[in-house]
Write a structure and sequence with these properties.
single chain, alpha/beta, Metallo-beta-lactamase, Chain A, seven-stranded mixed β-sheet, five-stranded mixed β-sheet, 12 strands
Length: 323
């Protein structure tokens, strides 16, 4: 997995990367909390957008980049790889487009943090370490004006679409990061838009799991024979990085399972993980979400929702910053 480079992008920066004729990745900022990537497939005046961004201002910047990359193309379809806000909050700005995601992802929408909740938490941050953590990572986002709507089309397992002459295969590979994760494969281009099935540069967030199922999803990404993989956060990578990410998930699962067998509580287990091999990755406190997923899978007590996880994650970040 790629670590952070010496020169990090400034939050708000957006880079357009053409991966093949008519296939583009939009790489946003440094890939941290709320700074996700998007994709575009465009041909013969038609266009499919893979994900939107966390806020309306971010998505307006994305749509300007889309227009510059594919002048004259009209986005008629949005594929949301999952329904975390940083991948769908901007959908409303794409007038008239149908929105597609997996049926499982669509069923999760009522459990996602709403834009109003994010805004309220900004205005009324929790006390102590959790509030400081949330302010540090989320204070720069403006969640006003966001209106959520359910997807217009859902699918299970696989769905094939046509964008002009370009074939696009949707693959449901969750539960992994979330219950209903979707990858978008463009066979002719050898490209997969992975959503948050793939993180690069930071430790991943695990809202669902199981970790071994997520590792199997990485194997499914590699089975496409693609050579370019666009993560949900971080730079575009090749096959080696996807394989390493799968190995990382299996390693975390093994370590967390040993801690569970030893009777350690989630917080202690996360603090004791051996992460030396992943020292280049940012946000190591996120490993607590992975440990919690393993404990939940075993029927053991563990935080589950984003708000339940916020405090323990923030406390681990504070602890690691002083170690």
């Amino acid at each position: 997995m790629n670590g952070r480079s010496q020169t990090r992008m400034v939050p708000g920066d957006l880079r357009t990367q053409e991966l093949a004729p008519g296939v583009f990745a939009f790489i946003q900022a440094d890939g941290s909390w709320g700074w996700s990537n998007a994709g575009l497939v465009a041909d013969a005046g038609d266009a499919l957008l893979v994900d939107t961004f966390f806020t309306l201002s971010q998505t307006r910047r994305l749509l300007a980049a889309v227009s510059a990359a594919a002048p004259g193309a009209r986005v008629t379809t949005i594929v949301n790889t999952h329904l975390n806000g940083d991948h769908c909050h901007g959908n409303q700005l794409v007038d008239g487009a149908r929105t597609i995601t997996s049926a499982c992802a669509a069923s999760e929408i009522e459990h996602e943090l709403s834009p109003a909740t994010y805004q309220w938490l900004q205005n009324h941050p929790p006390e102590g370490v959790a509030g400081r953590y949330m302010t540090r990572h989320f204070a720069g986002f403006d969640f006003s004006g966001i209106e959520l709507s359910p997807p217009t089309t859902t699918f299970s397992d696989r769905l094939t679409l046509q964008v002009g002459r370009i074939t696009v295969n949707l693959m449901e590979l969750g539960p992994a990061h979330t219950d209903g994760d979707v990858a978008v494969h463009i066979p002719e281009a050898g490209v997969v838009f992975c959503g948050d099935l793939l993180f690069q540069g930071d430790h991943p967030v695990v809202w669902s799991g199981p970790l071994l199922g997520w590792a199997d999803a990485c194997d499914a990404l590699l089975a496409t024979a693609a050579t370019a993989f666009v993560p949900g956060h971080g730079p575009v990578v090749g096959r080696e990085e996807v394989a390493r990410f799968g190995e990382y998930l299996r390693d975390l699962h093994g370590q967390a399972s040993e801690a569970a067998d030893a009777g350690l509580p989630v917080e202690e287990a996360a603090a004791q993980l051996s992460l030396d091999a992943y020292g280049a990755l940012g946000l190591p406190e996120r490993v607590l979400t992975a440990v919690a997923a393993v404990y939940r899978e075993r029927g053991l007590p563990a935080p589950a929702t984003p708000l339940e996880l916020l405090g323990p994650v923030a406390q681990l970040a504070e602890k690691l910053s002083h170690s």
